From TrEMBL:
<keyword id="KW-0378">Hydrolase</keyword>
<dbReference type="Pfam" id="PF00232">
    <property type="entry name" value="Glyco_hydro_1"/>
</dbReference>
<dbReference type="GO" id="GO:0005975">
    <property type="term" value="P:carbohydrate metabolic process"/>
</dbReference>
<protein>
    <submittedName>
        <fullName>Glycosyl hydrolase family 1</fullName>
    </submittedName>
</protein>
<dbReference type="InterPro" id="IPR001360">
    <property type="entry name" value="Glyco_hydro_1"/>
</dbReference>
<dbReference type="GO" id="GO:0004553">
    <property type="term" value="F:hydrolase activity, hydrolyzing O-glycosyl compounds"/>
</dbReference>
<dbReference type="InterPro" id="IPR017853">
    <property type="entry name" value="GH"/>
</dbReference>
Amino acid sequence: MTNFPNLYVKKGDLYVFLSVFKTKYAISYLQSEEDKKILKEGKVDFYSFSYDSTICTTIDKNAEKSGKGNLQLGVVNPHLEYTEWGWSKDGLGLRYYLNERYGRYEMPNLKNE
């Protein structure tokens, strides 16, 4: 469901899976014909995102904790370089994310900073 808002503004319409989800979990929502028209006409042209660093998790309680840089909880990835501020440099992670986003939305990606 975390991708639902992005899919909604890309297509400008509700997906079939949302109808199934609505029925399965007894969710209700209101959408007027005017809402449908506005969303259909206002579809996005590109996908914009921010990709700052990669976070790793582990079950090892003794692993070196991260939390510098972007202040997110995680552990240090020994395979990555880090900036002097503690932010990881992960070009492969960014490439993976770009591929996944393009595969999902089939539209240009714009990395914003």
